[in-house]
Amino acid sequence: MKINYDLVAQKEMERLKQEGKRPTLALHVCCAPCSSYSLLMLTNTFDVTVIYTNSNIYPQDEFNKRAKEAERFIELFNKEHNQNVNFILAPYEHDAFMEELKPYKDEIEGGARCVLCYKKRLIEAFEFAKVHNIEYVTTTLTISPHKNSEIINKIGETLEKQYYPIRYFYSDFKKRNGNLIAKRFKEKYNLYQQNYCGCEYSIRDEK
Ligand code: SF4
Fold this sequence. Notes:
With 207 residues, the chain is α/β, with parallel strands linked by helices. The mean pLDDT is 97. It has helices at residues 5-18, 32-42, 60-81, 94-99, 112-131, 149-162, 178-189, 200-206, and strands spanning 24-28, 47-52, 86-89, 136-139, 167-168. The chain has one domain (5-206): Rossmann fold (3-Layer(aba) Sandwich), CATH 3.40.50. Bound molecules: iron/sulfur cluster (SF4).
């Protein structure tokens, strides 16, 4: 039976609220527009630290552009919503990151290469949480209409077991009009939005 991950997320937030808790959460962010709705939802319940770890992006100028825009958005978001979200920029190590993905270069977007790419970035977020004693980890990747939330959440479920006691926060940010709200943020703040997923193979596939 298909799991409704949005419902799982809402129940978890409700439970934390009832227990009067406000845990820390490391949010893996892929780009500014995708982070907008996710932050709006998560900051109701969590103290959020954004971890921008995306060495999949090619070329480096594009990585820099997306990272800068994510940071700019968070500053604006904090001001407008009276929040204190931190922004952490992980180093750009594209060649090392892509080494494991190369055997899958001919896969279509959403296939085995992408599954590995999601997993590597989520591992980086869990590692960050481990070092900084952060209680939860999640990712904005589930907001993308091009990405399978079930696959991403299953990866999170596996990593939660490996990184116990860090919890994975299940999500399906595209639900509850997540994309529409993200689009409004994008227009309001004139946020840059890329026209390809990230790696050199995704540029090729967009042509
Ligand atoms: S298409 Fe996107 S998700 Fe897939 S491997 Fe490339 S950057 Fe990663």
